[in-house]
Amino acid sequence: MQAVVKSYHGRPALRGVSTHIDRSEFVFLTGPSGAGKSTFLRLLYRAELPDSGRIVVDGFDLAEIPRRQVADFRRRLGVIFQDFKLLRRRTVGENISFVLSLLDLPEREQQRRAYLALRQMGLQNRLGALPDELSGGEQQRVAIARALVLQPDLILADEPSGNLDTERGHELMELLKSINYQGTTVVVATHDRGLIEAHAARTLVLDRGSLVRDAWGATQ
Ligand SMILES: Nc1ncnc2c1ncn2[C@@H]1O[C@H](COP(=O)(O)OP(=O)(O)O)[C@@H](O)[C@H]1O
Ligand SMILES: [Mg+2]
């Protein structure tokens, strides 16, 4: 990400942010509410384009991806949100197979991936449950499993523990770290200092749209 500027209605949300995240890194993105964390992530998964500056993800210059290939690009990423964004009328298994059906994979490979992702999240016994029958922590694990079945190179999580209690938040971070340990790059936006203090990692700090710190662990 090079000199990235993004404004909404003339008000800058990111004011010239440059940084580099290596393959297989685990990075926290933090800063107060309104600092630009969600904007930073949205630009990375090309939900929108910057006003100026350059963003390269996984070797792709995001401004140069033709519109019809944007969906293909997004499938290389797993995105996780605070509110889980599960399909509420579909079972756990259907939430996962919905994503897999977007890929052109043999049925057996789809089933194998769905099972592995759910097992990694400890959810292999909840295939038939509806999201509302699960706890918040379980729902977020379904969301992670849904991200994992795509075998993404990069996972982006926007306040993923925002609807979880402290303990579930820490468990979630352990899961994301175990995914990272297998080689997937993980970027977690959070304003929760406790999480950052407990899970030492490189931490980018945004403040009013500027990158003000890039160091290991929480601010002093
Ligand atoms: N879609 C949008 N439309 C208008 N303003 C937005 C939009 N998204 C973000 N902003 C503004 O950009 C700034 C950064 O927001 P955001 O990236 O959501 O910060 P954070 O995730 O750190 O809380 C805020 O001032 C916010 O109001
Ligand atoms: Mg946000």
Keywords:
binds adenosine-5'-diphosphate; Rossmann fold; 6-stranded mixed β-sheet; alpha/beta; 3-stranded antiparallel β-sheet; ABC transporter ATPase like fold; globular; binds magnesium ion; 2 domains
Explained architecture:
With 220 residues, this protein is an alpha/beta fold. The protein folds into 2 domains: 1-76 and 152-220, 3-Layer(aba) Sandwich (Rossmann fold), CATH 3.40.50; 85-151, ABC transporter ATPase like fold, CATH 1.20.1580.10. It is 32% helix and 25% strand. The protein contains 7 helices and 11 strands. The chain has helices at 37-44, 70-74, 92-100, 107-120, 136-148, 166-181, 193-198, and strands at 2-8, 11-17, 26-30, 52-54, 56-57, 60-61, 77-81, 154-158, 185-189, 202-207, 210-216. The strands form 3 sheets. The protein has a 6-stranded mixed beta sheet, with helices on both faces. A 3-stranded antiparallel beta sheet has the order 2-1-4, with no helix packed on it. The protein has a two-stranded antiparallel ribbon with strand order 5-6. Strand 1 (2-8) and strand 2 (11-17) form a beta hairpin. Helix 4 runs antiparallel to helix 5 (136-148) and helix 5 (136-148) packs parallel to helix 6 (166-181). It starts with a strand and ends with a strand. The structure holds adenosine-5'-diphosphate (ADP) and magnesium ion (MG). Adenosine-5'-diphosphate (ADP) binds next to helix 1.
